[in-house]
C-alpha cells in the first residue's frame, strides 16, 4: 500500500486539526520511512520476485524492526510520546500514535502473509489483497478519495499556494502510485532503499502545504488588522 497510508494521514487532520499535515503524514508513513534505512544497514531484507503478487514484485522476507506488530506498537507509543513532549497536545499525540498503528493495520489487508506479530519465529499475517490488481486499485483508490475529502472538509486554502500546492501533491502521489503499479520491477534492492529515502520529500511538502492552508473553523485575519 502506498497512497492508502497517505490517505490516513490526510484524513487524520479532521481528528486532530491542530497537528500539521506534515506530522500526520510522517506518522502514517513512519514504518516505510524507517524501512529503507534498515535495508541499507542490512537489518532487514527484501527480495525482488516478479509475479509473487499481482500488484508488487517485492517479497518482504525479513522486516521485524519496522513491521512486526510488537515493534509497531513501540513505534506508535514513541511517536505519540515525542509529539506530546514537544507540543503538549494530548489529542494530537493520540492521533499521531493511531496514525503509526494504522500503517500496520492497512498493510495486513494488502500484504500476503508476511507481516510478523513479533521479532523472531513469529506467525505471519496478511489477507493478500495484493493478489488482486482490480481489488487493490478499488480499495486503495476509494480510501484515498475518502482521505482527500476529509482533509478538504477540514481545511481551506489561505492563498493560491494552498490550492495548487495541495492538488499538485495529490496528483503527484497518484502518479507515483500508478508508476509503482504498472512500471517495471526495481533493478536491485539497493535502488529500492535509496529511492525510498525520497519519501521524506512528501513529508516536507506536507508541512509546506499545511502552512498555506488553515482549519475551516479559524478565520483569516482581516487586512485592516494586519496594518494596525
UniProtKB/TrEMBL annotation:
Its keywords, alphabetically, are: Membrane, Transmembrane, Transmembrane helix
From the record, give the transmembrane residue ranges. Answer: 21-43, 63-86, 93-110, 130-152, 164-183, 189-209
Membrane: present as a keyword of the record? yes
InterPro entries per UniProt: YdjM-like
Instruction: Give one Pfam hit by family name.
Output: YdjM
* Keyword check for Transmembrane helix: yes
Protein name in UniProt: Metal-dependent hydrolase
Q: Native species of this protein?
A: Rufibacter tibetensis
